[in-house]
Write a structure and sequence with these properties.
- The structure is a single chain.
- The protein has four helices and seven strands; from the N terminus they run ββαββαβαβαβ.
- It is α/β, with parallel strands linked by helices.
- The chain has a five-stranded parallel sheet with strand order 5-4-1-6-7, with helices on both faces.
- Helix 3 packs across helix 4.
Length: about 130
């Protein structure tokens, strides 16, 4: 069974506020994330709304905290990021890769995935 997870808010604790979503602050915050209890689980896929631009930084963080995962799927740089875009991105990845269990902490994304990923068990993670 293929298992996937969101990154920020599930595997990594990220205390971001809406005003923090600017590139220079994101780099600082992504580096300072702390691992959650879910970081000790094994995942076939980590599917994150983080832009591809932050791949190296994210991979270093995952290595630093010894997160066991198979594939890191990041939001494409060429697509303007929006909540609707993240809905579509995660739905497409979960369905295309046949992920059967997925952990998500954003209530809106969770609801969308439950409606659109009918073959996956979408698990909501309460705020950490």
């Amino acid at each position: 069974m293929k298992v996937g997870s969101d990154l920020d808010g599930v595997i990594a604790y990220t205390p971001l506020k809406k005003n923090d979503y600017v590139p220079f602050k994101l780099r600082e915050f992504y580096n300072s994330c702390s691992p959650t209890k879910y970081a000790k689980m094994n995942f076939d896929y980590i599917i994150t709304g983080r832009k591809e631009f932050f791949r190296k930084l994210t991979e270093k963080w995952l290595e630093k905290y010894d997160v066991n995962y198979g594939n890191l799927v990041m939001y494409p740089n060429k697509i303007r990021k929006s909540l609707n875009g993240v809905f579509k991105f995660k739905t497409k990845v979960i369905n295309e890769f046949g992920i059967k269990k997925y952990y998500e902490n954003h209530r809106g994304i969770y609801n969308h995935l439950r409606e659109n990923c009918t073959y996956a068990n979408i698990i909501f993670i309460e705020k950490i």
